[in-house]
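Take our chain:
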Amino acid sequence: MTFVRGLELSRRFYREAVEPLLSKHFGDLPHSAARIGPGSEVVGFDTARSTDHDWGPRVQLFVESAAPEITTMLSHHLPKTFLGYPTHFAGDGPVLVMAETDGPVRHRVDVLPFGRWADDHLGFDPREPVALTDWLGTPTQALAEATAGAVFHDGLGDLAAARARLRWYPDDVWRYVLACQWRRISQEEAFVGRCGEVGDELGSAVVAARLVRDLMRLCLLLDRRYPLYSKWLGSQFAALTERPNLRPVLAATGWHDRERHLARAYEFVASWQNDLGLAAPVDPTTRPYHDRPFRVLHAERFADALRAAITDPEVAALSWRGAVDQHVDNTDALIDR
């Protein structure tokens, strides 16, 4: 069977199967339909491998009333398969898989009010003004899932506006998150050399890998993209039109080479920030780490420039802790809304 990308499958499933049944049994019931939220297909990275769990003919159907009746109706009237994929999902835990059935379909058309979906997945309702605590307390993965995917119908009239409100951080929040990302880099950039100097090449490599990850996330933030979690971070970074070459950093077998390749990457990203005009320009060239023989950017210079450009007093008063996934790196903590 030819693989159908998940978003196209969901779009056609709604248009050809769900919407006709909804119209037949409930008339012109106001609703919105989309495929957003968790799932590799939402962010565009699904493959045939993705079909083994939590993938298939799926739709969020947002309504203000009659949700239980719609769910029951669809379970009895949806086709058992669509474009060759079962519409029934089996499983006892949180992970469900497509499976054949002779009885009612346990479908993945999630019928609920949008406010409840938003509370479950974001912790707040983006149809209202988004508070600073919501911007900073919501993982970038969740923000990406809410703004990616596709809307198939917006009969309630507020889904597109809610997603547009979440499309990107307000400018001063953006400056703050960027500043905290630069700050993370400044904290460890000298350690690649310091570990290597004492013969700890493994430690040097680990620090370099951490810095590569932070640089990847920084590049995505500069490009106004919410960084995805580790499984898709590399694919997302590779899709950037312009990006520093970070492969040599990870391929290097000695700390001098790691440091040299990182220096080139630092200068690339530093110039990128200057070009955006978010803060006063800062000299993007690398330099010695004080009186020690390590080449660094002194990334705190870029963090300080961004902080100085913030005019919102609420944002300006924040500590250096940053957004939630700049100081928390535990999946369970990040997905527990």
